[in-house]
Amino acid sequence: MKTIFKAALVCFMGAICLFSCKEDTRNYAQITGVFKGEAKDREIHLCKVEHGTIHAISTTRLNENGEFGFACPVDEPGLYVVNVLWSSVQRPVKQEHNLKRFYLDKGVNVNILLSDGDYQLIESNCVKNRVLSEWNSIADSMFTYSHGFQYNLLSYEDFFPVLPQFVEQADDFKKLIRTNDASFDELLGLMVDLDLKVAAVNFLFTPQQKHPSKDMYPDFYEQILNEKAADTERLLELANTREFMRSYSMYKVMNAGIDMSNAQQRLEAQLATVENELLKGYFAVDNIQRYKTYDDNYLNYKQLVSPYLSTPYLQEQAEAHEISIRNFTEGTSGFNFKAQDVNGKFHEFADFKGTLVYIDLWATWCGPCKAEIPALQALEKKFHGQPVTFVSLSLDKAKDIEKWREFVKDNNLTGVQLMADDDFDSPVATAYNINRIPRFMLFDKEGVIISADAPRPSDKALEILLVKHLN
């Protein structure tokens, strides 16, 4: 077996040499392995744990011997997950539950023997991965019971008697966590507790042939009802935190006698089960995905959770979903984009309410855009002192921000000069399906769309339109 892994490692190291000439491989972690089983149509995904869930960062196919390898640049040490998928349909070969967890840092090497539903750690130069491997095996045993049909069909008669044993096993395991890295030891302790809760609560929501009465529940269920849950931001470093918040909040609300038919009341109660303010934001973002229509129900929920969308990531996630369910047509409210001026100060579309708003989407590289500048400046002078705001919103690339600033200053551009954050991938460009420029839009004093494809400044029709809506 070692010969096989040495061969896999030699092949893998040869592959990474192609790019290591320019990159210092000391900044990389390496995972090599062999897949045992039918290799055809299998794909191996390396995922990074971020924001309480996993995100695939690299994909590889197995060679004819089932060998695979990854070289992963590591900026900050953390948890990663390896999963096996059918490449043709991009779904797990066997429900993975993100249990092939590894700790990667610069210079860390991991060697594994992989199969559809299991893995064996052959070797690692990082003791943390040996400790993780031990817990992963215990967690996999718990999930065999608690994830029902995804492994086998077991009832509460099978799971409830062994749950106290898993709790005791987890407590014993936590006492042995000593890697000389206090931060990792704390995180692993959180992982142990979370896996236990995920297993217990998930079991209750997994289809079963037999259903227990509450008096049959092991004491552990009462324990997790009475303790604080999701109360530390470090849970965002674990792969199943967001999964747990969804199931636990439902479990707790159901046991609190909340009227489940009252959606607003239920959502408020579920949100209250999450102790940490930042985690409330993640819980809110996950729930907001359930709204498929931009209506009063969505707006009420948005108002409820907006105070918790406190980071750029959370705001972007909520914003992207809103764009996906909105139809920005004439007569609807405009998209409340945010963009910075030449001094780095951010402005929102809502800041301009109370005036007509004419938006020019352009870029410094766009000849037809620049050709409209003289006509735009003439309009700004003509309507000076009237309630009209002329906004020029640049879709230049972020790397060209200094070029844009210089262009604005050198050409004495007036009006409100802003730059979007991600050129054609910016939320404002996505919202209005903008794939070419120049593009012009006009909004009334309440921010409602008059035209999402308004006349150009050089078109006399624009002046007529402005006068019409000012009167």
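Next protein, fold it too.
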Amino acid sequence: MGPRMFAASLALSLLAGSALAQAKPAAYQAPRNSWGQPDLQGTYTTATITPLTRDAKYGTRNALTKQEADGLEQATREQVARADAPTPPEATVKDLKNADCGADGISGFNCGYNQGWKDPGTTLIDINGEKRASIITSPANGQFPARVASAGAAPRPGAPRGRGARTDNPEGFSLGERCLLSFGSSAGPPMLPLMYNNTYQIVQSKDEVAIDVEMVHDVRHIRLNSQHLPASMKVWMGDSIGHWDGDTLVVETTNMRPEQGLRGASPNQKVTERFTRIGPNKLSYRFTVEDPGVYAEPVSGEVAMNITKGQVYEYACHEGNYALSGMLAGARAEEKAAQAQAGGAAKAGGGN
């Protein structure tokens, strides 16, 4: 190639590179509030059909193809349509023929909840056009890491907490059943989507970011540029300290109460969260849970928080909550009946 041809080729390459650079969209810049902080304020929903852990068939691939994503979302829309269909007039309270309980993964008497109670969303997590197979992004297989031998097996949700049988005391029930804190890990940290009530409102001030969590009325207080409380002070939802790293709010939470903890994490866990506005109507919410005494490695994930209309309504969990007292009363009645039966058997056998 001669000098002139080389120069012409170089010029064309530079022009092509310049055109590509101009065509590539610039990274979204979040608006600033009156304190100069990236403005994260708004009411968001995390409702999604993307599960926490990944279906094993996807292996280490967390980005779904368009065909896979369309198929999953279409199947969900069809399931919702079936569940929303009118109930046959001849159906009894035990039927709930349109609840499609098995497909929803909810079973038991009356299936627990029919479609009218639920709002898990109908779409997958979408981050910059990539539809996700799981919330967990690390480990690479989208599963929880192995538990260290000394940690034992993961506790069953709602299992007694060292206070005897589940129905011996109110403390044997889950925090959500007791109306103390959200079901699952909705309030967090990390803040994860559930079957319903996946709305959050973020409010900022110069020195604090507050997050109003719809599920069970919780409010997280994130103090900016502050210091953690003494390690001996364990608080609900942990002690959260935040700082700004460019456009990202980074929050480190420690001092969690022993009743909390993602899949059995201990009070020694540290949760690091990153909130970044990636568009006018969406936040990327990333988290990492570190607990060397329980998990062999950290577990990380990402959730899309999408702007939603309306407001966060009060979740008046305690009002009319007869379930907890009813379950405890039922357990006492069963104990009384068992004692009476044992006494009758003893008399029939000639015992004292």
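About the second fold: The radius of gyration is 26 Å.
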